[in-house]
Amino acid sequence: MESAVADTEGATREPVLSLKGVSKGFGAVRALTDINLDIYPGEVVAIVGDNGAGKSTLVKILAGVHPQDSGTIMFDGQVVSIPTPTASRALGIATVFQDLALCDNLDVVSNLFLGREIRNGLSLDEEEMEQRAWSLLRQLSAKIPSVRIAVASLSGGQRQTVAIARSLIGEPSVVILDEPTAALGVAQTAEVLNLVERLRERGLGVLLISHNMADVQAVADRVVVLRLGRNNGDFHVADVSYEEIISAITGATDNVVTRRASAHAGSASAAAAAADASGTGTVESGITEDFRTHETPAPGTEENPQS
Ligand SMILES: Nc1ncnc2c1ncn2[C@@H]1O[C@H](COP(=O)(O)OP(=O)(O)OP(=O)(O)O)[C@@H](O)[C@H]1O
Fold first, then answer.
1. Where does the ABC transporter domain start and stop, copy by copy (predicted)?
2. CB 93, CB 176: distance < 8 Å
3. Distance 27 CA to ligand 1 centre (A)
């Protein structure tokens, strides 16, 4: 699936990461079948799909947790294998899992440099690490009150920020974020989405796993839909509607979201017609944004045989 594309200046770009026909099974369960995916430098690609669609399995293959059964992974144009998490990091893929893997009792500097401490002779160079920590956090426009406080005392958004900043210490080319806003409130979510934009500005390829369509539409350039372990859509976010993404996720063109959307469109156009007649304003759609709240195939049915 790898293909060069022309950027706005006309220069061709190659994907930094490219998957071709990647499949993975667990016993009788086909978690992924023939997955194709390209990520370009400076691009945020959201992976969406219902529960069990295969998102975590895809992340784990790229993070070196599970090897794929078949298919090819290319990184910077070279075919690679990713047998271990160390191999994934060494290639330049940084994965921030939902648990963040921070040490709560250690301060921000210690967490950022954990396992990659800077030394001055035999002792740790605390001053250098502290300066680099501030510099990195400033580049990310991160709002961290002090780099010398224990991570336990930070908010959820700040913890996510520290985990993402730590992933950058190894200077990766691709960052994978697994549901980075799942446990966050509105303001903290906005902070993390700002951070994702900073990653894109640094020229990184970002793979964002998300269940939240507002996040996807706010920050992603492209959205790739997985359904029952297969590719089921690859859209430019600017060109696709919320209802089209939901249809690709659920595999149905008729579901509660699309029905509500057309009902809203119907009442909106009726209201607009009435407003036109009376000279007053229009009506906006009020569809919910987390697609998991909508109809999904029941486990064990033909629609969802894997559950
Ligand atoms: N280690 C495993 N052993 C057996 N089956 C697995 C394993 N990991 C995943 N699966 C199965 O693979 C399929 C894809 O699961 P996966 O966790 O990748 O989906 P997901 O899209 O991340 O779902 P969710 O949104 O619920 O996290 C599911 O049917 C799941 O039960």
1. 17-253
2. yes
3. 12
pTM attached to this predicted model: 0.81
pLDDT 10s digits, 75-103: 999 999 999 999 999 999 999 998 888 99
Average pLDDT, the chain: 84
Which domain CATH number covers 160? 3.40.50.300
* CA-based nearest residue to 182, from 201, 160, 165: 160
What's the pLDDT band for 112 if we cut at 50, 70, 90?
Answer: very high
Range of the domain at 277: 256-293
**ipTM confidence score:** 0.97
For residue 182 and ligand 1, the question of a CB distance below 6 A is answered with no
List the one residue out of 304, 44, 88, 29 whose CA is nearest residue 196. Answer: 44
59 alpha carbon – ligand 1 mean position (Å): 11
**Is the residue at 84 inside a domain?**
yes
CB 68 within 8 A of CB 61: yes
Specify whether 261 is located in the same domain as 213. no
Task: With beta carbons less than 8 A apart as the criterion, state whether 299 and 221 touch.
Answer: no
Mutate to test the pocket of ligand 1, among 24, 29, 62 (most ligand atoms within 8 A of CB): 29
